[in-house]
Request: fold
Amino acid sequence: MSFEQQMLQALQAFITEARDLLSGMEHSLLQLEGGADPDMVNELFRAAHTIKGSAGLFGLDGVVRFTHHLESLLDQMRAGAVAADDAVVGTLLDARDHLAGLIEAVAEGGDGLQPGPSEQALVARLQSLQAPASPAQGAASAASAAPAPHEPAAPGAVMVHRLSPQDEDKVVRLQPQEASTASWHISLRFGRDCLRNGMDPLAFIRYLRGLGDIVALATLDDALPALPELDPESCYLGFEINFRSEAGKADIEAVFEFVRDDSEICILPAHSRIAEYVELIRSLPEDELRLGEILVQVGTLTRHELDHALREQEQGAQLLPQGEREPLGQILVREGATHEPIVQAALDKQRQAKERRSREGQMLRVAADKLDALIDLVGELVIASAGNTLHARQPEQVEAAAEVTRLVEEIRERALKLRMVEIGETFARFQRVVRDTSRELGKDIALIIQGGETEMDKSLVESITDPLMHLVRNSMDHGLEKPDVRVARGKPAQGTLRLSATHDAGSIVIEVVDDGAGLNRERICAKAVQRGLIDAEAAQTLPDADVWKLIFEPGFSTAETITDLSGRGVGMDVVRRNIEAIRGTIDIQSEAGAGTTMRLRLPLTLAIIDGFLIESAGRSYVLPLDAVVECLQYPEQQQQQGYLNLRGEVLPLLHLERALGTRPDSTAGASPGRRNVVVVSASGQRVGLVVERLLGEYQTVIKPLGSLFAHLRGIGGSTILGNGRVALILDVPALLAAAPEVTRHRALPGGQAA
Reply:
């Protein structure tokens, strides 16, 4: 592979990672509206920092430039200088969207080097939300603009300045070796030739005051010789200074730039600030940084001190056996460049970064088509294994076939888990939709997510995203009222929209529930009569469930006005068509003034399920195993045919051959006299299916039915048995819903059967 191909491959990996990070950023920003969370702000900063750093590797200057402005605002939020109010979160969401657009432009081959008017306006918004420069920063700027007191004087001149009386009054005198709790502790030992070179020690101290406040100062005169030996052009003084400033260590060190080479200068944070540096190190992105780089990045070590320590380490390695090196952190602490707790925090951060890279190295992205091919092959393996078990005769063959079946079952489980994802990630995308749409409509809507950990096939998740979007938008636009209307109706001003997912009878049930006005039966019926879908007489007697189904008719809409969201009659028919295309169903429950529930029932997977094989009228059928509760023998002597007394409870019965309208298969031989009942559960109701034979559990590879069989109710697909015959897979909820016996049993009071 050429270098260009490798870079292109790496760029695609960056784009994929950036999309994941941006998705996480949107989720964190929406959560941030509920209140500031330091961990969430740190997560946002790390995501922006990672995108910025990776984009720089590929020369994506447009992405780097814009992300820098986003990162600056997030950095101030980490420091507590900017609050996470609505304006800030809204601007950050817009910035996240713009950054996503830049990434997509890169994916399409662009570079986004030239910022357009929209980006310039967004950058201005980001900058306007940042906190103004602090007084210390302002002082630092003023000091840097003022004439530097350490510029060399004329050759041979000796400059000696004293602190003014006003300055002396502001300085607390310390005894040597005494410390206080100021932000910085500066230990100065000026070089012996400092005065001779035209440098004034006191001028440096005066200049230092431009960056902050000198809280306390102690003069060290222990190096002064006896009077006869004193050289008036030599400097013997040292100072211990407690200094309070918001300036960084590098800025403080820069004050002494002209005397740094021949003086001993040690700048340490006081013990009161060690915890701050430790916390700052912990909040850093888990990038691949070395110990020294981490300490420089947080400001507890300067680049000059790091270079000096590295030279010390290199020189020391020559004295140690086999080229061993003294740990850099140990050198820095010994040299007084930093404190032990800060070094330990940096080492912990370095270890976390290594562990993170190790975890990421265990993850592998696989193309969806390759995974689908693997699932198809596993399905064929399941069928072949069933055929092998069927033809096993000898005990040794039976045992070997059983072992193969066990291994195939385990392979199937692991293969399917590769394609199962939690639906919570899809639900989380609607937080942004609800936030933006509710503000556009002038409504106050809270989104509640339940069952986000429920897993389903990834291909199904992708198929239901658009239908869910239609349902959510319709609930916000048509269902939920504006705050003043809700208050007038005795409801809370804030409306509630709930997305939930649960497993039920081998299916996954997704509900979109709102507490709005509910569906208007009169308006729906009037519109249906106007369009000729029903007559006026039928509109009076039609059950509610059938009335609600009318909204799925193409072009049907009861909206009085057309908006950008809805009202054109396009959407609900598409929802039903898309749901039915993946063997799903959609039902509606609504109560005037109380709200509406849209219930989607979908298969867990499109590939392989655990089934229960039964036989009726000489034909084989498969029930999803999750729908089966228990099995029992049918009591032939009982008189009533419509129900069964199951441990004191009424169990409605459904004779499968009658429900499906089948006749005994002449090739299957005579029908056995004994019959069985399979108790199945769907939508909270138990029903007994009367069948002829129970053939046991069966790994079922789902084969979709063609369009010719699309009209069949109660059939969810087909599968191939080990003997090569075809068995139909029963759709239990649809089968029960279409059965008049079950419907009649529901309608009778007290559960009495007809």
Observations:
- The two ends are 75 Å apart (CA to CA).
- Confidence is low (pLDDT under 50) at residues 134-182, 667-671, 746-754.
